[in-house]
Give the backbone structure.
Amino acid sequence: MVHILGSVNSIFNQFIAEIRDETNQKDSMRFRRNMERMGEIMAYEISKTLNYETQEITTPLGIANVPVLKEQPVVASILRAGLPVHQGVLNYFDKAENAFISAYRKHHKDGSFDIQLEYLSSPDLNDKILIMCDPMLATGASMALTYKAMMQRGRPRHTHIVSIIASVEGVDYVKKHLPENVTIWCGAVDDELTVQSYIVPGLGDAGDLAYGNKI
């Protein structure tokens, strides 16, 4: 199942407009904050799909019966670009466990590249809800490879993939290579990829825009 939040009019689209705007992108703090805001909105939408139980809450004037989360998810992000979105999700699921994955494109002289995974830190995932944050879903290959690596830590009951900007090709790839108990949450889905597998119009390199250019 794929949810595209930008397909309906909301303040979410204001944040998408700002992170795409090359003038606004000069302010890395603003870029990170908007990514975080969108992570918060994604977390709110995901929260509607989770399980709840009624809890008696004592107020100064009596007892209130309130539905609260039955369990907390595990929030995972692909370093480094996923960190601002991760923080936004964590702002709402503030008791969640966390996982971190280091993945990058290793480019070759002929212009091709491989996805390299170097580090994985994760709690047990068996029968848990997993939320995986990666702001750009381009080819979908890195997400599929990362998901496979995460399965070494257990089999989650359901996985939510949070991506701010995706490509049609990336969404199709993930749908084809990941199981049915995976839901994709996107802000926008763009039609085109460049030969270097960057999303068009996209927004550029999310990690560089958030944290500075890398060597």
Remarks:
- The chain is about 30% helix and 35% strand.
